[in-house]
Design a protein that fits this description.
heterodimer, A: Ferritin, 13 helices, B: mainly alpha, Ferritin, about 0% strand, PaaA (chain A), 1,2-phenylacetyl-CoA epoxidase subunit PaaA (chain A), Ferritin-like_SF (chain A), Ferritin-like (chain A), oxidoreductase (chain B)
Chain lengths: ~325, ~270
């Protein structure tokens, strides 16, 4: 469901314009004409590496993203809600699987596979989305993730629905269709709380207060200056996405702030307002240093969630080994 | 016994209804608790593909529990959500083997879960569920027949899934073989009560609501013996108690506390 374009460090590809100027020109012509690039087509190394980073982070975020919601799956307060959240989390896992397959194909020429992705995650080399490092403290958090986190994901992913890389673009078509259901699932939980008892309303407002900075951070830093060099440029140049981080955040605020306010909720930012002249929302910047800390696995639940994956990986070592053993038939 | 077509009709005969609800509680409570144990595994399965498949099965199973709770609701036993969330452990009829923990730790912290237990328990459970539902197709209670028929449309895929796992693991590496066998030995000591029909067994048979405990057990044994290359010696036992008579372990209490945490924070609220 989730990705933003990272700034700063990370594998910077060798500038590939020189690797084969003729092929490069032909490639750029294709994507500029709106053609889709397929897994076996020639592509510049920078393009391949940008995609690997983007899609493996997207995929692993779907998988890590199942963990905070999972905390509330058994606790969902009715049979209907139990079924709804189970279906949702299962979809997220399915998205993770779909995306990792796309990433695996791109990594194949480097001799890397799924196990490398998992190892990178456990070592801390592969980051997952900031929102999934956060704690979920109440049932309202489960609703809020569906409503506002999936809502944010719909904004970023819709922006890439015409991505130049065919396998990713097709995966996104399917993912976006399902995300719409997730946002509806989240919205239904939120509506029940917003129309509920005083305690339910307070629970909801508390969740929004805690999640607000993480939601702003969702789209990534606004400018390259915030954290260093920019990966936004490569994704836009290669027609993977259209808008900048800030452009997406503005679209998100446009869509969701009126809905938030209409439910009688507030956001923890007294300065927030729409500037009619500049045609944009003016808001208090979240702490981008904290953001860097969070995505470097120093967020409130980063280590605990990585620990879950590590335990799962260790405890199923014997299963992987057994599956690799040919079955003896009597 | 002629066919009882509706809940209203069933309610006319107190003894019939009492026997019938026992069977429905067993079916509902089994699915509810096994689905819970499945949901604890989410994100921890041996690979992503398994996580997707397992969580799909878990979700379907919760859906089946809901169908059985709804049949109870129609019979005047109370709201389906209340039946699922409000009853404490000594009101539950699930088999005790299905309630035990997946391993040490909790699903939130240090879940040291054993995949061999997941495979053995789910395989044995689905094989049992298929037999019980097939017998329910002959029930004198028409709504139970219809629900069994509906559930049997997807349930065989669940059984197929776990059958594939146990077939792959039971004769692979030495370690896998030993783990599976030791979990089967454990299961044989704990699954016995699942085949019981509870305190209303005589009426359940007399009123043709379901087949006998012996029939269920024999059909199940025939079915699992076709798949298992190792079958423990000795009779099935119920070391954890008789769940059909509402005897349970404290592991069920812990599970129910989690399942009902939010619901119980305000039972009157709309969630």
């Amino acid at each position: 469901m989730y990705n933003y374009i990272e700034h700063g460090k990370g594998a910077t590809a060798v500038s590939t314009h020189q690797e084969d100027p003729e092929k490069y020109a032909e490639f750029m012509e294709r994507i500029e004409a709106g053609e889709k690039i397929e897994a076996d087509d020639w592509m510049p190394d920078e393009y391949r590496q940008t995609l690997i980073k983007l899609i493996s982070m997207h995929g692993i975020s779907e998988i890590m993203g199942a963990l905070p919601e999972k905390e509330w799956v058994p606790k969902a307060p009715s049979l209907k809600r139990k079924l709804g959240i189970m279906a949702k989390v299962q979809d997220e896992m399915g998205h993770g699987q779909l995306l990792l397959r796309v990433a695996e194909d791109l990594m194949a020429p480097y001799g890397k596979d799924r196990e490398d992705i998992m190892q990178d995650l456990l070592r801390g080399d592969l980051k997952f989305h900031n929102v999934f490092h956060m704690a979920t403290k109440s049932w309202a958090d489960a609703g809020l993730i569906g409503w506002l986190v999936d809502g944010a994901a719909i904004i970023t992913q819709t922006n890439m629905l015409d991505a130049s890389y065919g396998p990713y673009q097709r995966a996104l078509q399917r993912i976006c269709a399902e995300e719409v259901f997730h946002a509806q699932h989240g919205e239904a939980i939120i509506m029940a709380l917003a129309e509920g008892t005083e305690e339910q309303k307070a629970m909801l407002q508390d969740a929004l207060n805690r999640w607000w900075p993480a939601l702003l951070m969702f789209f990534g830093p606004p400018t390259a200056e915030t954290t260093g060099s920019s990966k936004q440029e490569a994704t836009i140049k290669y027609r993977i996405r259209k808008s900048t981080n800030e452009g997406l955040r503005q679209a998100y605020l446009d869509k969701y702030l009126p809905r938030i306010f209409s439910l009688g909720l507030t956001v923890p930012d007294e300065t927030i307002h729409y500037d009619e002249e500049k045609k944009k929302w003016i808001y208090q910047q979240p702490d981008w240093n904290e953001f860097k800390q969070i995505i470097s696995n120093n967020g409130p639940r980063s280590q605990a969630r990585l620990r879950l994956r590590k335990i799962a990986h260790e405890n199923s070592a014997w299963v992987r080994e057994a599956l690799a053993t040919p079955v003896v038939t009597a | 016994m002629s066919l009882v077509e509706t809940a209203e009709q069933a309610k006319q005969d107190a003894a019939y209804k009492e026997a019938l609800v026992e069977v429905l509680y067993q079916l509902a409570d089994d699915d509810f608790i096994i689905s819970y144990r499945g949901s604890e595994w989410l994100g921890l399965a041996p690979h992503i593909e398994e996580d997707v498949a397992f969580s799909s099965i878990t979700q379907n199973t919760m859906g089946h529990a809901m169908l059985f709770y709804q049949l109870l609701e129609e019979l005047g036993e109370g709201d389906a959500d209340a039946l699922a969330h409000e009853r404490i452990s000594n009101e539950r009829r699930n088999g005790t083997y299905f309630e035990i923990k997946n391993g040490s730790g909790t699903y939130l912290e240090e879940p040291q879960y054993d995949w061999a237990l997941a495979v053995v328990r789910n395989y044995l459970y689905e094989a049992f569920k298929k037999v019980k539902l097939e017998e329910a197709l002959k029930s004198s209670y028409a709504p139970l027949r219809n629900t069994a028929d509906k559930v049997l449309m997807e349930q065989p895929y669940h059984l197929g899934h776990w059958k594939t796992w146990i077939t792959q693991l039971q004769d692979s590496s030495q370690e896998a073989k030993e783990r599976i066998q030791s979990r089967l030995d454990e299961a044989w000591k704990q699954i016995g009560d699942a085949f019981e029909l509870g305190p209303k067994a005589d009426d359940i048979l007399a009123k043709e609501i379901l087949s006998s405990s012996e029939t269920l057990k024999q059909r199940w044994l025939d079915s699992v013996k076709e798949t298992l290359t190792y079958v423990p010696n000795g009779d099935l036992a119920s070391e954890l108690g008789n769940g059909r008579a509402k005897e349970h372990t404290d592991q069920l209490d812990q599970a129910l506390a989690t399942l009902s945490e939010v619901y119980n924070s305000d039972r009157e609220a709309v969630w």
